[in-house]
Amino acid sequence: MSPAAALAAPPAVTAIAPNNGPANGATSVTIAGSGFVAGSTVAFGEAAATGVSVVSSTKITAASPPGSGTLAVRVRNQNGVSEAVPADQFAYDPAPSSTWLGLNGNSSTYLGPVDAYLEEGVAYDRSGPIEFRAGQIPKAGGALEADMRDGMIPVVVIDYAGYHGQFSSDPKFPTEEGGSLTLRKYVKGFVRTASAILADYPGKTVLFEPMNEPWGYTTPQYDGAPYAAVIAKLLPVAREAGIPASSIYVAAFGKHWIREMYESRPSLQIEVQGWYFHPYGPASGSADENSAGIQSLPAVQAEMTSGQNNIIVSEVGYCSDEVNGAKGCHPGETSAQAAANLSLMLANALPYHRAGWLRVLLVYSRNDGGWAMQLSGGAFTEDGEALSAFAKAQQQASRAQAARRRRLRARRRIKQR
Length: 417
Fold this sequence. Notes:
By secondary structure, the protein is of the alpha/beta class. It has helices spanning 3-7, 115-118, 143-150, 183-200, 224-240, 255-264, 268-271, 287-291, 297-301, 335-355, 382-416; strands at 12-17, 20-22, 28-34, 41-44, 47-48, 50-56, 59-63, 70-77, 80-81, 89-93, 101-104, 122-133, 153-159, 207-210, 250-252, 275-277, 311-316, 358-363.
């Protein structure tokens, strides 16, 4: 090694793009950093990347090897190996589940038969009555029990004082400094409630969100730091209690919120394993990252260094002022326009689901004024018909794909004889 090389700094990774890809590998990843020289190699965890090309001293491209979980992408050359940093985390996407659609308030059976959507695979159920205060124990015969009985998959919100619905900085928001419910008490209460639910329904899928739309209640509002403090305390305690980190979906709604959480509590750059995203705005102050709706999600996902392969999107939908005499809709927005917008949104979400990182999409909602999927008595609105048609098409595509796999397996068995 020459004296110049011996004095050269080891490589360093400052960013990777994309930050996720399928388990079978072959994702083309661009690695940014410094100290890249000819002959540099790249590893995802312990597995060597293929097709490594050193473009410059600050840029390398490489293809991901097969893998699973989240792995550090590290560069090695004659000057050393890059240190593992949050920015180098590459997440392998799980295979997408055929059940991924849901509704807010899917358990609101007063509108009609609950199987109106369940038979089409719209099985996730969120909010409405499935919301608990930290420390609350589910009662027998409640909405959660009904969800399990009817074959739905609950997405449970565990809040600190119940959802207000009217945003304003709340002095009761859990903090180290105190309040009516301290941060320690909230964490303890979250674990108590979540643990009780998991004990009541062993082997069942239950997803948890710590607080609904916390950005409306922080001081100052829309500041990710206070919520980051809650999550940084919560995740280690929940892990010790046996609550899977991958079942805890941290509330988020834009790039600046993610960035503020990471900057405030750097441990979250690695510890978060799931995000609960609301892609609407303009609460963030940036139309680019929220108001574009679900199409803004990949831009926000690119900012994540943790949980980027396990995302729930909730409360997406379009409001018609023709339905139920709705208030709060854009004036003149017809049912046909709302349905067309919903269909377009679902089409935009589909490739995210197929890639594996969009685990659940929850439409807003089964019935809430002009956002309704159904009317009193159970009849579908035009929005509801659009969701139903999309869900049926996904079921048919899934069945066709399964049939193709069965045929391929049969052919292989015949060849092996």
